[in-house]
Amino acid sequence: MPSQGKSFTNHPGIIDFMGSSYFFYHNGALAGGSGYQRSVAVEKFNYNADGTIPTIQMTTAGPPQVGTLNPYAVAFGAGPKTFRARVASANSGGKVELRLGSNSGTLIGSCTVAGTGSWQTWTTVACPVNGATNTQDLLLRFTGNGSDNLFNFNWWQLNSASGSPPEVTTPGVPATTTRPLTTTSNPSPQCAQLYG
Predict the structure, then answer these.
(1) Same structural domain for residues 81 and 177?
(2) 38 closest CA partner among 26, 50, 47, 48
(3) What positions does the domain CBM6 occupy (predicted)?
(4) pLDDT tens digits, one per residue of 48-59
(5) pLDDT tens digit string along 148-180?
């Protein structure tokens, strides 16, 4: 990649997804950007005939849309049995409530998040899940005391009794394509929602 976008590095990564290849990198091309204030970017590309990576130009367009990102159709099947999440809290923590249909819908699980002593001291919490079957909307509701931030939230996963996550299908993506239900969220004292 030529030197572009006001950044002296690009920290690249390549992901091959559904028969296409994507080059992820960062640059300082946005307003106020620099070598230390960078933005994540992605470009779709094709490998050269000999398997090498071509020179990739930075753009502001990015790749064409792969499919519908939201909503996800969460197919619980017979039902997950365990919820796991990676969390950190410099405060007293809080709870992650798993609800169906709405922010006040049926509670299918509740995980307690204790303080870990720092916003970057991570731990994995787990709790039982009961009552989620078939395809439904799943909401993660973060609760706690006071008005301070509750905890940082890195990722979450639902596991069946066998330990494998339920499958996720995305509208517009062939039905033969399945992925584990795992997502990443920014720290939030509010609510993360997945619609199905």
Answers:
(1) yes
(2) 26
(3) 20-159
(4) 999 999 998 888
(5) 889 999 888 888 765 545 454 444 444 443 333
* C-alpha span between 131 and 107 (Å, rounded): 8
Last residue of a domain, one of 43, 66, 89: 66
Give the whole-angstrom CA distance, residue 140 versus residue 138: 7
Query: Of 13, 36, 66, which residue constitutes the final position of a domain?
Result: 66
Task: Count up the domains in the chain and report the number.
Answer: 2
Identify whether residues 61 and 112 lie together within a single domain: no
pTM for the model stands at 0.51
Q: Tokens representing 50?
A: 């000999």
Three-state DSSP at 56 gives coil
Exposed e or buried b for every residue in 96-113, given b needs 16+ CB within 10 A?
bbbbbeeeebeebbbbeb
Closest-CA residue to 193 (of 145, 148, 138, 150):
138
The C-alpha angle with vertex 87 and arms to 86 and 93, in degrees rounded to 5, equals 150
Confidence (pLDDT) at 179: 38
Considering the chain, what percentage of its residues have pLDDT values greater than 70? 73
Mark out the alpha helices in 38-184 (DSSP H runs): none
Per-residue pLDDT tens for 7-17? 677 778 898 88
